[in-house]
Amino acid sequence: MQVAEGKLVYPGDKLGTHEEWMPGEGTYEEDGVIYSKVLGKVKYDEDKLEAIVEAVNPVSSVGIGDVVYGTIRDKRSSMATMTINVIEGRSRSVRTDLDGTIHISKMSDDYVDSVEAVFLKGDIVRAKVLQMDPSVQLSTMGKNFGVVRGYCFNCRRPMERKGNLLYCESCDRRETRKLSKLYGKIKMKSK
Amino acid sequence: MAEEELKLIDEKGIRNDGRKFDELRPIKIEAGVLKRADGSAFLEWGENKVMAAVYGPREMHPRHAQDPSRAVVQARYNMAAFSVPDRKRPGPDRRSVEISKLMSEALEEIIFVEHFPRASIDIFVEVLEASAGTRCAALTAASVALADAGIPMSDMIASCAAGKIGGKVVLDLGKKEDNFGQADVPMGMVPTTGKITLLQMDGNLTMEEYKQAMELAMDACKEIYKIQRDALKRRYSTSISTFEETNDMEEE
């Protein structure tokens, strides 16, 4: 073990050789030598025999179990697609336009007859990541998940929550959604 | 170039500003100075003052410029209107476009661009005070800012210039030396591997002089590399326990 565990290493620092460890997260290997590729702290995984560098300021990447926010892009008969914009608890923006799918069975705790009654294109949704590979799968089951901001089908203005429905004052319309308990409580910054 | 009336280097090898031929101007780097950037650095190099900010990897705009196989590194070098004694006309000009391109290409060499397809990594360098050698200062600061931003990269780049004044090869030209000297060779490299990522020359050098200049600059880059690492160390050894993620939920 050449570098002590927990030590701060810089990009390009030698961590050991390929015979000692496998190159794990935050490292790269060149000519049999393992180097750090981020600024971070060294860790060794004795089970996987991996040398890892935990970045002190990691680049955002979405993982299973993350709570994410995004916009509904499209609806199909049994699913909706959503572009993930923000990861909860992270101030860094998501690396690129990442699309996830919400299957009709994962939309609500109750039986969903049609996607129309749950999401509308443009809605801002809080969801949980279920799967990353081979496709990004999301879920909005649970009280805190679902639409956090919905727009009126008619005039596209943000709607108010009235009980279990959304209400648009200017059109006097009521619409149904799978609402999150946090509806209207999320602060949004425009870029 | 003007006639050499001004004596840039004396018989003892002491330069105009009191430095020896192989002496750098004092360099000071601070990492993580900007709150809203993903990574940042402030660098003072003699009279030069340079601020670098890194954003990303993030969605690339314009979208037609996205590369499906890798991230695009977009560096922007900009001189503030007040950075020079005479007001500089703000905005990109031939020189700053050149330096921007140069920096992007130099930094692409060390960043693992293939990890972030379709994304862009944006680097903004503002020159607040300029006094010769700003492209080296900019590249040095950008490299620290990238490391601060946690961007995966193979190593860091240090950059320094060498040149020729009064017939002698010297390190790190000052403003007068740059204006009235005979040659200037800015160079950027990865000090641990010796890989050169930036190399330009203004003026003329013989092969022998060129080798001398390169040697001087390479040794200086190793010094600068230590200062860069020290800046990052200071940033993270003090704040690592107090480092917290901002928890406000945000939305585009």
Give a written overview of the molecule:
The complex is a heterodimer of chains A (191) and B (252). By secondary structure, chain A is mainly beta. Chain A has two domains: 8-55, OB fold (Dihydrolipoamide Acetyltransferase, E2P) (Beta Barrel); 67-176, Nucleic acid-binding proteins (OB fold (Dihydrolipoamide Acetyltransferase, E2P), Beta Barrel). Chain A has no helices and 16 strands. In chain A, the strands form four sheets. Chain A has a five-stranded mixed barrel with strand order 8-9-10-12-11. In chain A, strand 8 and strand 9 form a beta hairpin. Chain B is an alpha+beta fold. Helix content of chain B is 27%, strand content 28%. Chain B contains four helices and ten strands. The N and C termini of chain B lie far apart (53 Å). Residues 239-252 of chain B have low confidence and may be disordered. Chains A and B meet through loops of A and strand 3 and helix 4 of B.
What radius of gyration of chain A results from the CA coordinates? 22 Å
Number of strands of chain B: 10
CA-based shape of chain B:
globular
- Per DSSP, what share of the residues of chain B sits in E-state strands of 2 or more residues? 25-35%
**What's the number of extended β-strand segments of chain A?**
16
Order of helices and strands of chain B: EEEEHEHEEHEEEH
H/E series of chain A: EEEEEEEEEEEEEEEE
How large a portion of the residues of chain A is in β-strands, by DSSP E? Answer: 35-45%
Give the oligomeric state: heterodimer
